[in-house]
């Protein structure tokens, strides 16, 4: 949503102005993106494709979190917990109750939305840091439940799932990552599109109104209770989808995959990507998922020359993570998305400064 | 009045002019031991510009906050009379309603310190003014094509009329946080107008403006009032503006209503003169104090 419109674009109808893209350059860029997404599974090997697949899941989760934190202004540290709800419920419904996986995922999404709404109730009275602590409580409660409630995992501590099969069609072993790529890419695309649409309608605007000025929002007729709880429900729905997909993709569900660390990583994604922007959530998910991979690759290359480096890898990863977040907060608090917009503006105005 | 350019009526009230629209009935508001308002009663008539004036801390903004539901007075009641298109009357008591329910009764307001959605564009702020007239459905919103898109376009027509009326065309796609103060005040008026208000509450719409901006704002308020027929309740400190544009004036001082009448009546009221200029006795005391000071020096 750049505030600058290129010259020479005259909309004659409101419908044409409401389109997401209006210049040829924007359509070309869309075309390039489509080509890239179509070519990706054929040029990448399984290792890189598995990274792309985790990124696609992270995109869904980050978009969901940004709906709540970036757009509605309700800080949440409960991301990991909500992902766990999606993962466990989908796994149990599919494996133990024998439901078809798509049905299980849809039910898991709805259940996560309901539980997210429940844990959103403190948001009606709390703001800012206080709400962050309340959602931290939700994270701890859910984590405690999935660790201690034996029924969930039949006292084994983990759930294993069969290879994904959709209405009788089982994913072939040899093209496992590729098939998952198509499924995840489609779902991530739909999630991004749905979120993008949400924020060009009145409902999404009312979320942003709650974020910017809650008293004024009430004075123009926005019911704060409904708006905040709807935001929690929609956001948790996305997050639940990400959790359920994690479960079916990794084929195991353990509590270690949904700790507070996950919540923090997702918050880092949307901060680095750009709060309150869908594109930002996507960039952030890509960036934060690639960062550890890049560090590992670099360590492998330099490893033989400097063995102390590979020994300290986890510590270095943490340090770089922290450093990146701090640098973003200082250099461009509005994240990668704003950085990208500024680059586009620079090119558009060149050779002038503004 | 409907013209070819303005196809929507911005006035949300179907009451005939001259009937009581809002009745404030013996309202008292306390914050702990502080009495912000004591036993206030007045009536706002449909079709009037009704000014509420008074010195700083007199309780004007508290009065407005009571009407729009941000404060709930401990005593008394505030009643809004509305008429449906077919003429049936309903009286709603505002005193116990939350602000968003009062907004649904078409009571719109602006704030003393601008409270716009600063990250959103002017257009989005005004579209938010249409919130109570729109249907909000998660699935339809995410789908975009279909009802959600149709609704956005339908409501855009009225919003564009408000943009034309307030001459905000140049700022349509600018984030309001980046606009000049005077423009922001105008956007806030516009957002309230998009509700198609039955009653428009303006809290110091001209505060902090220079003479020219004040004239512009007064003209916009008169346009809204005369062209659209919207009833306006206005808090303002500039006496010239108040006396010029209002039909009726209520004067508050220390949380009490000390005068209520036409501008001319109020101007001549000794209690008002005393509240604004101080009484003779006080004046004498000041002179005495000054005299002693001079003697000491």
Automatic annotation (TrEMBL), chain A:
Domain of life, source organism: Bacteria
Topology term for the membrane: Multi-pass membrane protein
Compartments it resides in: Cell membrane
Main localisation: membrane
Transmembrane segments: 27-44, 50-69, 76-94, 100-121, 128-146, 179-199, 266-295, 315-333
UniProt xrefs under CDD domains: TM_PBP1_LivM_like
Molecular functions per Gene Ontology: branched-chain amino acid transmembrane transporter activity
Keywords: Cell membrane, Membrane, Transmembrane, Transmembrane helix
Pfam families assigned to the protein according to its UniProt record, in alphabetical order: BPD_transp_2
A single cellular component GO annotation: plasma membrane
Identification of the protein by name: Branched-chain amino acid ABC transporter permease
Gene source species: Ornithinimicrobium tianjinense
Automatic annotation (TrEMBL), chain B:
Alphabetized CDD domains for the sequence: ABC_Mj1267_LivG_branched
Keywords on record: ATP-binding, Nucleotide-binding, Transport
Pfam families per the UniProt record, alphabetical: ABC_tran, BCA_ABC_TP_C
Any one Gene Ontology molecular-function term assigned to this protein's record: ATP binding
Top-rank lineage group of the source organism: Bacteria
SMART domains: AAA (SM00382)
ABC transporter domain mapped to chain residues: 22-279
GO cellular component terms, A-Z: plasma membrane
Official protein name in the record: ABC transporter ATP-binding protein
Organism this protein belongs to: Ornithinimicrobium tianjinense
């Amino acid at each position: 949503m750049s505030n600058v419109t290129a010259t020479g674009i005259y909309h004659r109808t409101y419908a044409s102005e409401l389109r997401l893209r209006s210049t040829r350059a924007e359509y070309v860029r869309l075309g390039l993106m489509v080509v890239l997404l179509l070519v990706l599974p054929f040029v990448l090997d399984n290792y890189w494709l598995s990274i792309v697949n985790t990124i696609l899941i992270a995109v869904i989760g980050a978009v969901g979190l940004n709906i709540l934190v970036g757009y509605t202004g309700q800080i949440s540290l409960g991301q990991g917990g909500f992902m766990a709800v999606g993962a466990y419920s989908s796994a149990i419904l599919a494996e133990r109750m024998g439901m078809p996986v798509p049905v299980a995922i849809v039910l898991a999404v709805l259940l996560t939305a309901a539980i997210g709404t429940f844990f959103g109730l403190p948001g009606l009275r709390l703001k800012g840091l206080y709400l962050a602590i309340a959602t931290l409580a939700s994270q701890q409660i859910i984590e405690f439940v999935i660790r201690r409630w034996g029924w969930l995992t039949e006292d084994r501590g983990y759930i294993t799932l069969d290879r994904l099969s959709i209405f009788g069609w089982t994913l072939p072993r040899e093209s496992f990552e590729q098939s998952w790529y198509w499924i995840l890419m489609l779902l991530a695309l739909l999630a991004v599109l749905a979120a993008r649409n949400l924020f060009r309608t009145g409902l999404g605007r009312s979320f942003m109104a709650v974020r910017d000025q809650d008293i004024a929002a009430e004075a123009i007729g926005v019911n704060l209770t409904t708006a905040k709880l709807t935001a929690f429900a929609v956001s948790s729905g996305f997050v639940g989808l990400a959790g359920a997909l994690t479960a079916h993709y990794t084929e195991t569900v353990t509590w270690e995959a949904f700790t507070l660390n996950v919540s923090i990583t997702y918050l880092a994604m949307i901060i680095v990507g750009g709060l309150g922007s869908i594109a930002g959530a996507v960039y952030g998910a890509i960036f934060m998922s690639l960062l550890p991979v890049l560090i590992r690759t670099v360590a492998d290359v330099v490893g033989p020359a400097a063995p102390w480096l590979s020994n300290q890898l986890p510590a270095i990863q943490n340090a770089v993570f922290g450093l990146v977040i701090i640098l973003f907060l200082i250099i461009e608090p509005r994240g990668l998305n704003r950085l990208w917009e500024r680059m586009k503006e620079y090119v558009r105005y060149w050779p002038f400064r503004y | 009045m409907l013209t070819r350019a303005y196809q929507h009526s911005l006035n949300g009230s179907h009451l005939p002019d001259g009937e009581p629209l809002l009745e404030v009935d013996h309202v008292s508001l306390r914050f702990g031991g502080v009495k912000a308002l004591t036993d206030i009663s007045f009536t706002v008539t449909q079709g009037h510009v009704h000014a509420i004036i008074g010195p700083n801390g007199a309780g004007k903004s508290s009065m407005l906050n009571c009407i729009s539901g941000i404060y709930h007075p401990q005593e008394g009641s505030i009643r809004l009379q509305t008429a449906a298109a077919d003429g049936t009357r309903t009286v709603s008591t505002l005193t116990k309603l939350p602000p968003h329910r009062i907004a649904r009764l078409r009571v719109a307001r602006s704030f003393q310190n601008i409270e716009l959605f600063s990250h959103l564009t002017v257009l989005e702020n005004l579209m938010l003014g249409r919130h109570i007239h729109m249907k909000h459905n998660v699935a339809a919103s995410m789908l975009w094509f279909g009802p959600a898109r149709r609704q956005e376009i339908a409501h855009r027509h009225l919003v564009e009329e408000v943009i034309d009326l307030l001459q905000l065309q140049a700022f349509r796609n600018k984030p309001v946080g980046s606009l000049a103060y005077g423009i922001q005040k105008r956007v806030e008026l516009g957002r309230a107008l998009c509700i198609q208000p039955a009653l428009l509450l303006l809290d110091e719409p001209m505060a902090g403006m220079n003479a020219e901006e004040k004239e512009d704002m007064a003209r916009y308020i008169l346009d809204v009032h005369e062209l659209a027929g919207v009833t306006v309740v206005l808090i303002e400190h500039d006496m010239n503006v108040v006396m010029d544009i209002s039909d009726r004036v209520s004067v508050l001082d220390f949380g009490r209503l000390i005068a209520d009448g036409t501008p001319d009546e109020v101007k001549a009221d000794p209690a008002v003169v005393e509240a604004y200029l101080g009484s003779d006795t006080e004046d004498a005391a000041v002179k005495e104090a000054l005299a002693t000071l001079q003697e000491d020096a």
